Hints:
- The chain is mostly helical.
- It contains 4 helices and 2 strands.
- 9% of the residues are buried.
Amino acid sequence: MSSSDGDLNADMAASQAMALPVAExxxxxxxxxxxxxxxxxxxxxxxLQESKTDLLSELARLCPDSEALQAHPAWQDLKETLVxxxxxxxxxxxxxxxxxxAIRGALRSLSAGHASSPVEVYDRLGQMARYSKGRGYQEV
Length: 140
């Protein structure tokens, strides 16, 4: 083994030692993000985005490319943590999509009712107002 191979292994070990705590921080942040989404605390969710971007940038700097990561069994703990992070990110994205779909559905029902089923909403005086087809939430 040449000295350059030894230096490369030492660099990999150092990167590995720094990358795992960063991945664990990302894992914790994704859990906080999910909790914020569940209770619809969008301010909290938004405040986490910059930290998440910073952690992802740091991981990109510390980790080897995907092929090298797969080839070295020493990176197994990091790979497992990153897979969990990926799954958590996907879970959060699904939750966001479901909430957006619910909002879109509510907006559709307010803006495009059938003539036979008028939409009931509150008017500016706080009274129940019935609007039939052709009048949407913009006119309330």
